[in-house]
Amino acid sequence: MPILSGRIGKWILALSEFELRFESSKAVKGQVLANFVTHHCGPEIHLVELTPWTLFFDGSSCGAGSGIGIVLISPRGASFEFSFRIDKEATNNQAEYRAVLKGVKLLKEIKADAIEIFGDSLLVVKQLMGEYECNDDILRIYHDECLQLLKEFRLVKIEHIPKCHNGEANRLAQGASGYHPIREISSLEIEESNWRKGIYEYLKDSSKKVERKIRIQAVKYVILEDDLYYRTIDGVLLKCVGSEEANVLMGEIHEGVCGAHQSAFKMKWMIRRNGYFWPTILEDCFKYYKGCQDC
């Protein structure tokens, strides 16, 4: 039997009565260390956050056709723009859905893990977020397909933004559809004689005493970015304008660069199509139409 000497020899001798045997340590695999760190990590260890891709989308539909616009921004800030012409018969809401659906498919193709989606269509955004119901049969097809694709991403954020913050996607969509936008209508101070004043002030302060008529009317309106909007039965928001802005709109639609001296009913349809509203829109269109010397 070899002579036991040194510290290791003393431990071997001391442990011999317990039927324990000493063995020198072997190589430890990396997975063992990884498991140890995972199970013993403290609160000071933080997970790395995913940097998302950003998607801006918009759709446009007019008499000339329909189109969609998409802007993708990579986590490093690189921007990629896309525009596609789609079916001429597509409505504006259908174009909006096809825009976000195409954008999500592009992000899936480049294997993005986290995405942020921004659009100015309140209807589409709220339906995808589950806050609005989707009752239209055609829109539901796009809606369900889009939700199914979104489940394949690790992180998804959807947010509604004003149209003024979605300029690039809007420009691409309008260019693809062949639409030539009318000049921008600026927001004006709501004067005393303006029909918007009572509704606007009531929505700003619902505790204020107003006529019962205004309380009933206010249900159909909402304030966004300090502007008053009318909510249609389909959930589409139309910007409310005063008399001066209404005259500008009727002039642009009826006899502007793209105007074709439309009838009063067509003028009303085109004004609402462009996203504007006031209560006497049809009556005012008739007056403008009958007062046109070239008609």
UniProtKB/TrEMBL annotation:
RNase H type-1 domain sequence ranges: 49-178
Gene Ontology terms, MF aspect: nucleic acid binding; RNA-DNA hybrid ribonuclease activity
Pfam entry (one): Integrase_H2C2
Descriptive protein name: Ribonuclease HI family protein
Naturally occurring in which organism (per UniProt): Robertmurraya kyonggiensis
